[in-house]
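Onboarding guide, step 5: your first structure request.
Type a short instruction followed by the sequence, for example:

Predict the 3D structure of this protein.
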Amino acid sequence: MLVGTALSVRKDPNNPPTARARSRDDACPNFRVRSIFNPLKIRLTTKPASGRKYLAIQSAPKAMSRPSLFELATTGLVALIWAYGCLLFAGYLKRKLGVRTGYTRKVFHLLIFSSAVIVHARWGFVAVCVFGSMVSIVVAHAVIAGPGNRLYEAIAREKDGARRTYFVVIPYFATLIGGLVSSALFGPLAVVGYLVGGLGDAAGEPIGTRWGKHCLPSNPMATKTLEGSIGVVIASAMALLIAVAIRPEFHADLQTIIAVPLISVICGLVEAVSPRGWDNVSMQIVPTVLAAILLVR
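The system replies with structure tokens like these:
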């Protein structure tokens, strides 16, 4: 059922369309716009009487936007097993191989963000919400288990002392907030935030832990270094290039070549000045906003 029109195009006999425009009009493509609540089907059509072309917006069947309980349960079970396996792997690195928490924590971080990119790109916002809920259960289990449990030890830094649990819970809530806001406002472009948050932010701590020597003046707790911020910039650029490669809204051209380093440097600055534990909010929202402004055609 057609619920409205978005555009009307008149044919001007004194200004005939180009060959490219004619081929586009003749194709009359159908395409989908995914929203959080209901996907819309949009098609270019022609009124028989007037010959005008217009965009017809057709509401998709409700079944397409509302997964069944069985689908949700199946998705949730798979997500729960995967999230638990990711944290179990980080715990294995910590306990069996003696890898430092600064690295195992970011291994889990990177695995979860990478998974969110795939889930969002393949199944959309609802699936990401289910995935995030299952990750929340796994993290909550680790926090309740507390010190001594290998899952907890994989993500709670010893150097945080009495605030070890605080710096597990707060960054995780920051991740949820950043992901939900990006998805709600920018839809498919939220994968930019997932990638930059996953790769860019994950690079800072391990690089700072291994090579960091120059503490940033903007960080009074002396937990962030210049070397770590350089790592964030480089990893953010890599994440943006991956986003350009996988999202059809982006194109590899001169504008992208200029915009990617600019966005990466801004992300490095944002991560450096963000309050400790809350940078997962800014490191998702800021690159998504900048990509929407500078990269989308």
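Each response can be followed by summary notes, for example: The longest strand covers residues 2-9.
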